[in-house]
Design a protein that fits this description.
Length: 593
C-alpha cells in the first residue's frame, strides 16, 4: 500500500503539472489567437488596399482561404540588418530585393528553420503600381507550385512597409550570367552608341551647315552678272548638278596662301595653282574626305583674277559645263569655292602640264616621239567628238589651243578651260556674238570677222593644233627664210609643192614609211580643217574616221583662210582689240567692223 503522504505528493505534482499544462496551453492558444488576429488584421489590411478590387473580386475575394504565412517584421529587420545596402540584391519597378539569413526571434515558423536563406522584396513607397502588384503576386504565388516557379514563403505587413518573402535562389537571374560578365562591354557599348549618336548629330549638323553654305554659294553663282546668255537653257545652269563646295581654309592651306612656288601658270581667267589637298575639317588631323577627294590628293586650283573683265561669266560657264561632262579626254572637275571676291575652280591635277610646255620647248620636244604625238592628235579628236556629238548637250569650246590641252602621266590629252564654251541645242548649227573672245592664231576667220561660231570653228582650231604637233612650232610665231609667216600658210605652200613632209619636225627624222604616211595624213586632215569656208571643213566624226584609216580616200584641201602676208586683213577695216592675245591669253575681245 502506498503511504498516504506519498499519494498526496503525487496528486499535488499531478495538479501542478495539469495546471502548468493548462497555463501553457492557454498561453499557446492565446499566442496563436493573437497571431491569428494579427494575420487576420494583415489580411484585412491587404484586402483594403486601394485599387486592388479590379483583380481580386473573384475566387474567395482574392486571399481568403490561402495559406499565406505571416512573417514578423522584427525577424525580417534582424535578418536584413535593417535593410542594409550590403544585403541588397537589386531593384525593380516594385522595389528593392534583399538577401537574408532568416532569424526567428520566437520559434520556428511553419517549416522555415533557423538560418534558412530568404529573399525579401520590399514594396517601394514611391511605387505607383506597387499596391496592386503586391496583392497580385501574393494571391497568384499562393496558388502556384512548380519546380520551375520561384517558391513563395510568405509576407509581412508593418504599417507602411509591405514585404513578400521568397525562397532564396543562389545563382541569381539568367541575365546575370547572360549579360553580367559582359557588363563592362555593355557599358562601353552604351557609351560608344551615345558617342556615335552625338557624333552623328554633329556630323549631320555640319552637313546641314555645309549644305546651307553650298546653297548660298550656288545662289550667289546664279546671280552673277552677264550670265543669262549661256544659262537660260537646261535647269537654269547649276540647279541639279553635283557641284562640290570646297572650304576656303582648306584651299589656302593647300596652296600655302597661293604661294608663287605652287603657281602652274596664268591665263586670261587668272592664275592656276598646283596643290596637295589638305582638308582642315578635322583640325590638324586631316582625315576627313570631301566628296571623293582624299587627303594628299593633288589638285589644280584656278583662281579668278579680280582684273578679269569676263571672268564671272567664264567662272559660271566652266562650272556648269564641266559638271555635266565626263570623258577620258576632258579634264576632271572636282568642285569650286566662293569666298568674298575670290572665286575658284578645283580640278584634278594633270601631272605633265600642257601640250605647249613640251611642244614649243626645243629640249622637251624631244620627249614627244611620233607615236606620242599621234596619240595626242587622236585624243583631242575624241574629246571634240564627245563635245560635239555624244555628250548630253552639244558644246562648242571656242578656245581650243595647245596650252588648253593637258597631258596626264602617260601623255593622254585632256581638253581643259571651258570658260568661253557655249551650249548648242541639238537643232542649232551656228551662233553669232558681238563679244569675240579667244586666242589669235587659233580663231576661225568667220569668227574673227563676223562673230560667227559653230562646231566648224572648233575644227579650225583642231587643224591648227594638228599642224603645230607635226611641226613643233606655234602657228602665229612661225618664221621661214623670208621672214614671219603663219605655220598654216607654210604648210599650204609645201602641200602645193608636193613637199608636205618637209613640214615635219626635224626631231622626227627616223620615221618608218608607215609613220611618214601617218604624218602625211595628219597634215592633210589639218589643212582640211583650216580651209577658208567653214562648210568645207570636215565634221569631227569625219576627221576621226580619216585618222583611223576608215576613209579610203581623203578629199583635197582648199586654200586656208588667210595669211600674215595677205592683204585681206589690211584691206578690211582693222578691228579694235580690247585685249589682244597672240598666244596664251584666252580673253581676247574683238569689236566687229
Amino acid at each position: 500500500m502506498i503511504h498516504a503522504g506519498v499519494k498526496r505528493i503525487i496528486v499535488s505534482v499531478t495538479i501542478v503539472a495539469v495546471f502548468l499544462l493548462m497555463l501553457g496551453s492557454s498561453f499557446f492558444l492565446g499566442l496563436k489567437y493573437k497571431q491569428g488576429k494579427k494575420k487576420k488584421k494583415a489580411l484585412q489590411e491587404l484586402m483594403t488596399l486601394e485599387d486592388c478590387t479590379e483583380t481580386f473580386d473573384s475566387e474567395n475575394n482574392g486571399v481568403r482561404g490561402h495559406d499565406l504565412k505571416l512573417f514578423s517584421y522584427a525577424s525580417i529587420l534582424a535578418s536584413t540588418n535593417r535593410f542594409a545596402t550590403d544585403n541588397k540584391l537589386g531593384e525593380g519597378g516594385f522595389g528593392p530585393v534583399y538577401k537574408n539569413k532568416y532569424i526567428d526571434l520566437v520559434k520556428k515558423q511553419g517549416k522555415l528553420s533557423e538560418g534558412h536563406e530568404i529573399a525579401v522584396k520590399l514594396l517601394s513607397r514611391r511605387s505607383e503600381q506597387g499596391l496592386v502588384e503586391f496583392k497580385t503576386e501574393l494571391v497568384l504565388m499562393s496558388k502556384l507550385q512548380h519546380r520551375n516557379l520561384v517558391k513563395l514563403l510568405g509576407f509581412c505587413i508593418h504599417r507602411n512597409d509591405k514585404l513578400i518573402i521568397y525562397d532564396y535562389v543562389p545563382n541569381k537571374s539568367l541575365d546575370f550570367f547572360l549579360f553580367g560578365g559582359k557588363r563592362i562591354i555593355v557599358s562601353v557599348t552604351i557609351v560608344a552608341v551615345f558617342l556615335l549618336i552625338l557624333g552623328s548629330s554633329f556630323f549631320l549638323g555640319l552637313k546641314y551647315k555645309q549644305g546651307k553654305k553650298k546653297k548660298k554659294a550656288l545662289q550667289e553663282l546664279m546671280t552673277l552678272e552677264d550670265c543669262t546668255e549661256t544659262f537660260d537653257f537646261e535647269n537654269n545652269g547649276v540647279r541639279g548638278h553635283d557641284l562640290k563646295l570646297f572650304s576656303y581654309a582648306s584651299i589656302l592651306a593647300s596652296t600655302n596662301c597661293f604661294a608663287t612656288d605652287n603657281k602652274l601658270g596664268e591665263g586670261g581667267f587668272g592664275p592656276v595653282y598646283r596643290n596637295k589637298y589638305i582638308d582642315l575639317g578635322k583640325l590638324m588631323n586631316y582625315v576627313k574626305k570631301q566628296g571623293k577627294l582624299s587627303e594628299g590628293h593633288e589638285i589644280a586650283v584656278k583662281l579668278l583674277s579680280r582684273r578679269s573683265e569676263q571672268g564671272l561669266v567664264e567662272f559660271k560657264t566652266e562650272l556648269v559645263l564641266m559638271s555635266k561632262l565626263q570623258h577620258r579626254n576632258l579634264v576632271k572637275l572636282l568642285g569650286f569655292c566662293i569666298h568674298g571676291n575670290d572665286k575658284l575652280i578645283i580640278y584634278d591635277y594633270v601631272p605633265n602640264k600642257s601640250l605647249d610646255f613640251f611642244l614649243f620647248d626645243p629640249a622637251k620636244r624631244e620627249q614627244l616621239n611620233w607615236e606620242t604625238r599621234f596619240k595626242i592628235i587622236e585624243g583631242i579628236a575624241q574629246g571634240l567628238l564627245y563635245l560635239h556629238k555624244y555628250s548630253r548637250i552639244t558644246i562648242i569650246h571656242r578656245d581650243l589651243k595647245a596650252s588648253n590641252i593637258l597631258l596626264d602621266e602617260i601623255m593622254n590629252p585632256k581638253i581643259s578651260d571651258f570658260g568661253l564654251a557655249r551650249i548648242f541645242k541639238h537643232n542649232v548649227r551656228e551662233a553669232n556674238t558681238n563679244k569675240r573672245a579667244g586666242t589669235y592664231g587659233y580663231m576661225a576667220p568667220e569668227y574673227i570677222m563676223n562673230g560667227v561660231y559653230s562646231a566648224k570653228s572648233d575644227m579650225y582650231s583642231f587643224g591648227v593644233i594638228t599642224l603645230e604637233i607635226v611641226n613643233g612650232q606655234r602657228n602665229n610665231s612661225f618664221h621661214d627664210l623670208e621672214g614671219p609667216m603663219s605655220l598654216v600658210q607654210f604648210a599650204w605652200e609645201l602641200w602645193e609643192q608636193g613637199a608636205e613632209l618637209e613640214l615635219m619636225d626635224t626631231k622626227l627624222n627616223t620615221l618608218s614609211c608607215n609613220m611618214k604616211d601617218q604624218v602625211r595624213k595628219c597634215i592633210q586632215v589639218g589643212l582640211l580643217c583650216v580651209q577658208s569656208r567653214a562648210a568645207d571643213r570636215p565634221a569631227v566624226e569625219d576627221a576621226v574616221s580619216m585618222l583611223k584609216n576608215e576613209t579610203k580616200s581623203l578629199p583635197m584641201p582648199g586654200k586656208p583662210a588667210f595669211f600674215v602676208r595677205d592683204d585681206v586683213i589690211q584691206k578690211a577695216q582693222k578691228p579694235k582689240f580690247n585685249k589682244f592675245s597672240m598666244n596664251e591669253i584666252s580673253l581676247s575681245a574683238v569689236d566687229g567692223r
